Amino acid sequence: MSKIAEKFKLNPNDTGSVEVQVVNMTERINHLTEHLKNNKKDYSTQRGLMRLVGMRRSFLDYLKDNKRQVYEKLIQELDLRK
């Protein structure tokens, strides 16, 4: 697990909280983006990437509505746009 995910864990075994899931999704999104730069015709991966981006957006919307401070900190740590 990444250092950023370690910061947002609620307890030592936490892998399911919204914050940790957003961090993990962001890492996967970054990896798939790099993959697609070299494999432009990999449409199944492209579809999976779009689905993952949508899921992350939903989680971020939830955080924005319910845990504003955590949302702001997460956006800053992951270097995402608001």
Q: In words, what does this structure look like?
A:
It is a single chain. The protein has 82 residues and is mostly helical. It has a single domain, classed as Helix Hairpins, CATH 1.10.287.10. Helices cover 76% and strands 0% of the residues. It has helices at residues 3-8, 18-38, 43-66, 68-78. Helix 2 packs antiparallel against helix 3 and helix 3 packs antiparallel against helix 4. It is globular, with a radius of gyration of 13 Å.
Question: How is the topology of this model organized?
Answer:
Blueprint: H1 3-8, H2 18-38, H3 43-66, H4 68-78
Quick recap of the structure?
With 82 residues, this protein is mainly α. The protein has helices at residues 3-8, 18-38, 43-66, 68-78.
Count of DSSP strands: 0
The CATH homologous superfamily name equals S15/NS1, RNA-binding
CATH architecture: Orthogonal Bundle
Low-confidence blocks of residues: none
SS-based class: mainly alpha
Rg is: 13 Å
Q: H/E order of the elements?
A: HHHH
Helix content: over 70%
| Gross geometry | globular
CATH class: Mainly Alpha
Overall pLDDT level: 93
CATH fold name: Helix Hairpins
Q: Give the tally of structural domains.
A: 1
The separation of the N and C termini measures 24 Å
Residue share in β-strands: under 5%
Q: What's the tally of helices?
A: 4
Largest sheet: none
